[in-house]
Design a protein that fits this description.
about 30% helix; about 130 residues; 5-stranded antiparallel beta sheet; alpha+beta
């Protein structure tokens, strides 16, 4: 099956991070992509946490989108914070934060950021192989 899309809106609040993880797990289970649940929920958690921690005061909500197309799972997290785009950096051992995009970069086949009006969307691609289908 390809061409499926699901978008859900979450409040920009710390309680939304576990809710976003549960939502991703539910959708991937429904789409029979159980082999991608661990990686996708981890990435959703990192990107949702970034919104909650860095986009405060810019909007009440963020959107999490999942698309399945042409052998690729696409996850997108969009918010209205428009003043600073996320960048991959190398945290030091003493840094207490800054590892989210390092994790995303290590797991995703491809990822990036695109502006939107207002704000931005961070997107990732994960390849769907026969091993991930359940």
């Amino acid at each position: 099956m390809s061409g499926r899309t699901h978008i859900k809106r979450f409040r920009a609040h710390r309680d939304s991070v576990p809710a976003a993880r549960r939502h991703v797990e539910s959708i991937l289970t429904e789409w029979r992509l159980g082999g991608l649940i661990d990686e996708t929920t981890l990435i959703a958690s990192e990107l949702s946490t970034n919104v909650v921690n860095h986009a405060k005061g810019t909007g009440d909500y963020f959107e999490l989108g999942l698309r399945r197309r042409n052998g690729t799972l696409v996850l997108e997290v969009s918010d209205s914070y428009q003043w600073r785009m996320p960048e991959l950096r190398t945290p030091t051992l003493d840094d207490l934060s800054g590892r989210g995009l390092v994790i995303v970069d290590a797991i995703a086949a491809k990822w990036g950021v695109r502006p939107r009006d207002p704000g931005k969307t961070v997107w990732i691609h994960l390849a769907i192989s026969q091993a991930e289908l359940t």
